[in-house]
Amino acid sequence: MNGSRGGRGRRIVLWRHGQTAWNLERRFQGSTDIELTGTGVAQARRAARLLAALGPDAIIASDLVRARNTAAELSAVTGHEVVHDAALRETYAGVWQGLTHDEIIERYGAEYAAWKRGEPVRRGGGELETEVADRAAPVVLAHADKLPDGGTLVVVSHGGTIRTTIGRLLGLPSHSWESLGGLTNCCWSVLGEGARGWRLLEHNAGTLPEPVLGDDD
Fold first, then answer.
1. What is the DSSP track for 22-67?
2. Kind and range of the H or E element at 172?
3. Is residue 91 packed enough to be buried (19+ CB in 10 Å), middle (13-18) or exposed (0-12)?
4. What are the C-alpha distances in Å from 34 to residues 8, 47, 52, 102, 135?
5. Rounded to an integer, what distance in angstroms lies between the CA atom of residue 100 and that of residue 199?
6. Which residues are catalytic?
7. I need a surface site. Which of 8, 38, 93, 201 has the fewest CB within 10 A?
8. Closest Cα partner for 28 from 134, 139, 107, 143?
9. pLDDT band, very low/low/confident/very high, at 213 (cuts 50, 70, 90)
10. Would you say 161 and 136 are in contact if contact means Cβ atoms under 8 Å apart?
């Protein structure tokens, strides 16, 4: 799935929400609705000023409050209304949600290890990563298809959902999606459209994208 039409030069910026208290405690949030911390709001405000310089044409976001409030900062400086969609929520992870990283390893170590090996695992009895991509990637592509040539879509979502969406849009096999490193709070990744589909131009960035010169030599 690449959604490109002969290289219209569009960009998709996938932006992770700002910091929450559960991020600091290394608790698995999943679809639990957790507010931003004061630091998270400040992160969103700073990142929004940078991303506004890209001249985004549209903003879509998860409807969870941490993503909504992050997206609101970009809306405030660009004037674009945010379209919220539950399909962009973080992975539902059942009984893992609310547990710390150490608690998950202690109680569900075999399941955790299998997931890290790239096996299809319903973490905590929740969603498979492929199911997250099944719901999120089509929404992203549908909004990208509405962009003008050379246009930019900003997607405000969550680390796991962004990773699976990138993997799906790049056409990577699902067992390799974990090779895409995690996103820091309020950092983003950029997909650019070329003649052969979507390419990963920036990953876990906190500064504006720079042109890549001579990447094949």
1. HHHTTB--TT---PBPHHHHHHHHHHHHHHHTT--SEEEE-SSHHH
2. none
3. buried
4. 37, 20, 25, 20, 21
5. 34
6. 17, 90
7. 38
8. 107
9. low
10. yes
Q: What is the DSSP letter of 176?
A: G
Q: Please give the backbone phi and psi of residue 104, each rounded to the nearest 5 degrees, phi first.
A: -65, -45
Chain segment 95-154, per-residue pLDDT in tens = 999 999 999 999 999 999 998 888 999 999 999 999 999 999 999 999 999 999 999 999
Q: Dump pLDDT digits (tens) for 116-127.
A: 888 999 999 999
Segment holding 136, helix H or strand E: helix 129-144
Q: In angstroms, how far is CA 66 from the centroid of its own chain?
A: 13
Amino acid letter, residue 193? E
Alpha-carbon distance of 155 to 13, in angstroms, equals: 6
d(CA 217, CA 55): 30
At 155 the three-state DSSP class reads strand
Say how far apart CA 166 and CA 153 lie, in whole Å. 14
Distances (CA, A) of 116 to 36, 94, 119, 160, 168: 28, 18, 7, 13, 18
Q: What is the DSSP letter of 214?
A: S
- pLDDT value at 216 more than 80: no
Q: How far is CA 94 from CA 64, 125, 149, 165, in A?
A: 17, 5, 41, 21
Alpha-carbon span 57 to 28, nearest angstrom: 32
